[in-house]
Amino acid sequence: MSETESCLFCRIVAGQIPATVVAESVNSLAFRDIEPGAPTHVLVVPRRHVPDLAGLAAASAAELADAVALAAQVADDEGLPGYRVVANTGEAAGQSVFHAHLHVLGGRSLTWPPG
């Protein structure tokens, strides 16, 4: 099985695994996290498989910008007065799915520093 065939987010993008999609663009897909860490917790993933945010930036600055713009659209659509965008890179940072993605978090006060 290839990396993209076994990747959870690639399978969601392909429609093979159901997800609650809240927004999409040509290059990105946004869907609700199944284990939310905030009242609003949406994942924004590039349609292209790259392992992390640095890989996405290296592959295509335009696709990275598209993901960030979609994250902002999600926050606006959700009516968030403020929000956090998080990208975990590497297992030590808490990345558990090795497909680049942004977490859009909001709907409550977010403290700093995060856990």
UniProtKB/TrEMBL annotation:
Record motif Histidine triad motif, residues: 99-103
Any single Pfam family the record assigns to this protein: HIT
Domain HIT residue range list: 8-115
Domain of life: Bacteria
SUPFAM superfamilies named among the record's database cross-references: HIT-like
Family annotation (InterPro entries): Histidine_triad_HIT, HIT-like, HIT-like_sf
Alphabetized PANTHER family for the sequence: HISTIDINE TRIAD HIT PROTEIN
Entry protein name: Histidine triad nucleotide-binding protein
Source lineage: Bacteria, Bacillati, Actinomycetota, Actinomycetes, Micrococcales
